[in-house]
Write a structure and sequence with these properties.
12 strands; 42% helix; Rossmann fold; 361 residues; globular; 7-stranded parallel sheet
C-alpha cells in the first residue's frame, strides 16, 4: 500500500513520526509532504523524515488562510500527479489510477481537499474540537475522523463527521511519546545547568484562528519564572523571539531542539497552547495552561483529573526541582500506549474497505 502523509505544523511531525515508522515496518510505502511553517521542516530534518517541502503559511487573517489553502492545494495536486506518473488531463486521472491508496493529515485542510479532488481516501485527525473552520472542511471531506474518545461525538456532528469517527483512548501524546526516553544531551545543547530548576514555556499561538485573545498573564509568568530558575522559551513567531531577546534572561533556541526530551526533563511547563501541555502530562511533568480560548474536552478532562492545572495567578507559580522519586511513588508518571493502535485507526478507510470486500466474498 502507498500512503501519503502531509505535515503542516511542528507538532504534526512528532505525532506522525512513529506512524510513518510503523507503516514502513509493516511494508507500506510512505511519501511525506511538509509545509514551511514554524519548525516543521527543521523537525523533519532533525528526525530524519524524508519529505518534499510544498507551500508556506500565508498569514493570520481568514482571507490569507483561504488563499494559502487554495495555493497549497494546487501545489499538492501537481506534486501528486508528478509522483504518480498520471497521464495528462483531469485531476482524477483514469479510474483506479490514483497514485496513493490513502492520505493522512493531522489538521491539514490542504491534503484533505487535494485527496478529495484526486479521489483518494483520506483520514483527518485532531484533538481540539472547536477549530470550527478547519473541521468544517476536514470532517466533511474525510473518510475517517480520528479523535480522542473524551470528545463527545455530538460536538462533531455539525462538521459532518457522523459515521466517520474513530476514537482512541487517552492522549495522542501517550502514543507518539511511548518510545521516548528523555535525552539529557538537550540540556547541554542549550547550555543549561542539570541541577538548577528548569521551566519550559511555550508562547501563545497568535496565528491560530481559534485563539484570538492577548494573554496578559504571560509577561508576569515569564518574569516570575526568570527570578526562580532557568527558563527556556519556545516562541511561535519572529516578533515574539525579538521581544524575548530584548527582555533578556531567557534561553531561546535558535534551531529545532529535542522538545519532548526538554519537556520530560523540565521541572515545570507553562504553555498557552495544547500540544506541549499534553506532552508534559504524558511524560509526568507538572504543567500549567494559560489558554484563554474555549477549552476542549481533552483539557477539561485533564483538569478534572488534576493532571493539568489552570494558571490564574502568575504570582502563585513556584519553580522548584521535581522530586522524581516521589512522583514515581505516587503514580504521577507516564502512560505509554501502543502506536500500532493509533496507526490502525488512521488506516480505517482502507481497512474498512478490505473488510467489506472480505464480507462480500
Amino acid at each position: 500500500m502507498r500512503v501519503w502523509i502531509d505535515l503542516t505544523n511542528s507538532p504534526h511531525v512528532l505525532v506522525l513520526r512513529p506512524v510513518i515508522e510503523e507503516l514502513r515496518r509493516r511494508g507500506h510505502r510512505v511519501d511525506v509532504t511538509a509545509r514551511d511553517f514554524a519548525q516543521t521542516l527543521g523537525l523533519c530534518d532533525r528526525l530524519g523524515i524524508a519529505h518534499t517541502a510544498i507551500g508556506r503559511h500565508r498569514g493570520e487573517r481568514l482571507p490569507d488562510k483561504a488563499r494559502g489553502l487554495a495555493s497549497r492545494t494546487r501545489a499538492l495536486l501537481a506534486w501528486s500527479r508528478s509522483v504518480g506518473g498520471w497521464p495528462g488531463g483531469g485531476w482524477r486521472g483514469r479510474a483506479g489510477s490514483a497514485p496513493f491508496d490513502l492520505a493522512i493529515g493531522h489538521g491539514s485542510n490542504d491534503v484533505t481537499v487535494a485527496a478529495a479532488l484526486l479521489g483518494i481516501p483520506v483520514t483527518t485527525a485532531f484533538d481540539y474540537e472547536w477549530a470550527t473552520v478547519q473541521h468544517q472542511i476536514n470532517c466533511r471531506l474525510a473518510d475517517a475522523v480520528v479523535v480522542p474518545d473524551v470528545i463527545p461525538v455530538e460536538r462533531l456532528a455539525p462538521y459532518g463527521a457522523t459515521g466517520k469517527v474513530r476514537a482512541y483512548a487517552g492522549l495522542k501524546e501517550e502514543y507518539y511519546l511511548a518510545d521516548l526516553e528523555p535525552d539529557p544531551a538537550v540540556l547541554d545543547e542549550l547550555g543549561l545547568d542539570h541541577e538548577a530548576p528548569l521551566a519550559v514555556v511555550r508562547t501563545p499561538p497568535e496565528v491560530s484562528l481559534y485563539h484570538r485573545f492577548h494573554n496578559d498573564r504571560f509577561a508576569r509568568v515569564l518574569t516570575r519564572l526568570r527570578e526562580q530558575g532557568q527558563v527556556v522559551v519556545l516562541p511561535r513567531t519572529d516578533d515574539q523571539r525579538r521581544e524575548l531577546r530584548d527582555a533578556g534572561g531567557f534561553v531561546i533556541p535558535d534551531r529545532p531542539v529535542d522538545g519532548p526530551s526538554l519537556v520530560g526533563l523540565a521541572d515545570l511547563v507553562v504553555s498557552a497552547g495544547g500540544t506541549m501541555n499534553r506532552e508534559a502530562v504524558a511524560l509526568g511533568t507538572p504543567v500549567y495552561t494559560t489558554f484563554d480560548g474555549r477549552p476542549g474536552a481533552v483539557d477539561d478532562a485533564l483538569i478534572a483529573d488534576g493532571r493539568l492545572r489552570r494558571l490564574d495567578d502568575p504570582d502563585a507559580i513556584d519553580l522548584v526541582r521535581r522530586d522524581r522519586a516521589a512522583d514515581a511513588a505516587t503514580g504521577t508518571g507516564r502512560i505509554r500506549r501502543d502506536v500500532g493502535v493509533f496507526t490502525d485507526l488512521l488506516l480505517a478507510p482502507v481497512m474498512d474497505d478490505a473488510r467489506r470486500c472480505g464480507a462480500g466474498t
